[in-house]
Amino acid sequence: MKILPIYNVFHEAIGYDNGQLKGRNTVFNARRLGIPNNTALFANLEGISEIDEAWIMGWVASLFPAGYHPGIYHDPVRKTCSRLSN
């Protein structure tokens, strides 16, 4: 069975350090669950209204060195990413 690992234990996605912290938490839980390297791990940003580029950069910076591929899950129709530049 294929699964889509999604991390959603946060309410805002603001700041590089916060993105790194959530990325490290995601990696920890992925390893705890036995999810192999080279798997995409997704941050669920759907319904979160506070998102900035720094958070995404921190998220990516934490997952790549750990051997995982960063992904983001979001509904593109609902425009909740007010802080992202277009």
Please give a handful of descriptors for the protein shown.
86 residues, 3-stranded parallel beta sheet, 3 strands
What does this structure look like?
The protein is α/β, with parallel strands linked by helices. The chain has one domain (6-73). The protein is 33% helix and 14% strand. It has a 3-stranded parallel sheet with strand order 1-2-3, with helices on one face. Helix 1 (16-32) packs parallel to helix 2 (53-63). The radius of gyration is 12 Å and the shape is globular.
Please give the structural blueprint.
Elements: E1 6-7, H1 16-32, E2 40-44, H2 53-63, E3 69-73
Parallel strand pairs: 1-2, 2-3
> Strand-and-helix sequence, N→C?
EHEHE
**Please, how many helices?**
2
As a percent range, the share of strand residues is 5-15%
Distance between the termini: 37 Å
Query: Radius of gyration in whole Å, from Cα?
Result: 12 Å
Strand order in the sheet with the most strands: 1-2-3
Number of domains: 1
| Class derived from helix and strand content | alpha/beta
Average pLDDT reading:
86
The residue fraction in helices comes out at: 25-40%
Number of strands: 3
